[in-house]
Amino acid sequence: MFEGHDTTAVALDFALMLIACHKQVQDQIYEEIKSVLGDARAKPTYSDLQEMKYLERALKEVLRLYPSVHFISRKLGDDVVTASGYELPKNTLVHLHIYDLHHNPDIYPDPERFDPDRFLPENCQNRHPFAYLPFSAGSRNSIGQRFAMLELKAAICGILAHFVLEPVDTPSTIVLVVDLILRTKDPIRVNILQQFDNIFNEETDRHVDIFKEIDDQSCVPINPHITQFKLKTIAESAMGTKLQFNTEKEVSYKRAVFTIGDVLLYRLIHTWLIYKLVNFFSQKFFEEKKALKTSQRRIAVKNEKGIIDDEGTHEEVDTYMFEGHDTTVTAVNFAYMLIACNKHVEEQIVEEIGIVLGDARQKPTYKDFQEMKYLERAVKEVLRLYPTVHFISRKLGDDLITGSGYKLPKGTITHLHIPTIFTTILTFIQILNGPGNCIGQKFAMLELCAILGSFVLEPIDTPVVVVNIVSRTKEGIKIKFVPRE
Question: In the prediction, which pLDDT does 121 show?
């Protein structure tokens, strides 16, 4: 039980990290799964797993770089003379460092590189049989190593059938520690993006139908429609909850999500509501103030058992819904306006959608969006001109000296004005970078692809931008949606 679970679990951790860090490998594994099973979400049989040769090579390369059993010990049955001439008498206890063996550049050129093709038959034929020992070797070889490989294959098949992996921790950021098996100092993290194709496409169809019902000669204030669409999509794909906004409870929640941005902005510009030094209200006010800080992430706040408490969970969900809908809705609004005003861009996006999908009205998958490079560039340019989060604030973790020589002490609250950054340094901050990254920004491309496949956009106005928690317009953006022939 110990050897059977611990070694395989650690191997799976490292496998997910490396697959997340190498998109080409991930894509090739996924294509192999589809090729063998027909449907990537079908349940594989023993013979199916045996056919997945590329996945097996990838897992072997994982175990070369990070062998779960990184050393083995043996008592010599006879006297042994080493290659350097050193004599080891019978019954000497010797340690074999498998990790060092697997990273020997004489055996594995460029040993730190992740390359599943090292285990192609033609690349293995001249390699010593004991040059690769992920499960030990000889008469005391690891029990059930074939079972372990099948278990790893089945786990990767199940995960990649439903999720796209994106890296958080990488080989350069993890710290390995010595234990009976190879471990990391901190747990390995990856971003798992659910394959929410079906959910998104269902909501998109409803969204498109709404615009089809509108007279094509009418201009449409797009914000209310996009906002409701985003809330429904995020709620179902991320929270597993369908929102129809046909009950008072759901409508009330939607209203609260809209209102929280105004509440935060109001408190930010009314200093006496923030700092106790200039506040003359009762202690009850500060209790209410603390309760309203739903925008502060509490994912790191845990109780004594290491589990997020109920209040933290509620706040995390509210943050997800607020940040995930508001920033993306604003980005899509500006994208519609700019694409409508630049017909050559609109035509090139539609052409690319047709090339990738075959039919511009075909239902796209997540992997289809990965191929739409021009659309991605267009969205990035929208976010350069109109960054949805136009400023961010951070507390300095260390003293900082600015380019002009001014010293900012540790603990200072600093504000970064993103539109200004674009004119002063060669940096592109789309919605937000770093660990405080905005939730839900990946939905923007999905929305644009669906709408442009069904409509030609015609511009009505270019409204004035105003300051808020996110970039907004003084009046709602209006677009004319003309059904595409």
Answer: 93
Unique residue bearing structure tokens 């697997």: 102
176 beta partners: 184
Q: By the 8 A CB rule, do 442 and 380 touch?
A: no
Task: Check if the beta carbon of residue 464 is closer than 8 Å to that of residue 475.
Answer: yes
Q: Which domains does the chain have, with CATH numbers?
A: 2-194 (1.10.630.10), 197-389+431-483 (1.10.630.10)
Return the C-alpha torsion angle 60, 62, 65, 71, nearest 10: -70
DSSP states along 76-94: -SS-EE-TTS-EE-TT-EE
Q: Which of 149, 155, 172, 182 is nearest to 60 (CA)?
A: 149
Closest listed residue to residue 329, CA positions, set 401, 257, 397: 257
Query: What pLDDT is attached to residue 268?
Result: 67
The per-residue pLDDT for range 375-421, each reduced to its tens digit, is 888 888 888 888 877 777 888 889 999 888 999 999 988 888 776 54
Residue 401 DSSP symbol: E
The model's pLDDT over 295-333, given as tens digits with 9 standing for 90+, comes to 444 444 444 444 455 665 566 566 656 566 677 778 888
How many alpha carbons lie under 13 Å from residue 242 in its C-beta half-sphere? 5
Span 75-98, pLDDT tens digits: 999 999 988 899 999 999 998 899
pLDDT one-digit tens code per residue, 155-166 = 999 888 888 888
**Whole-number Å distance between alpha carbons of 206 and 161:** 26
Radius of gyration of the chain (CA): 28
| Residue 144 Ramachandran class (φ > 0 left, ψ -120 to 50 alpha, else beta) | left
The first and second tokens of residue 483, run together, are: 């059904």
**Confidence bin at 129 (pLDDT 50/70/90):** confident
Cα 195–19–433 angle (5° rounding)? 70
Tokens of 14: 């490292």
* Distance separating alpha carbons of residues 20 and 190, to the nearest angstrom: 7
The maximal CA–CA distance of the chain, rounded, in angstroms, is: 94
> Given phi > 0 = left and psi -120 to 50 = alpha, else beta, which region is 148?
alpha
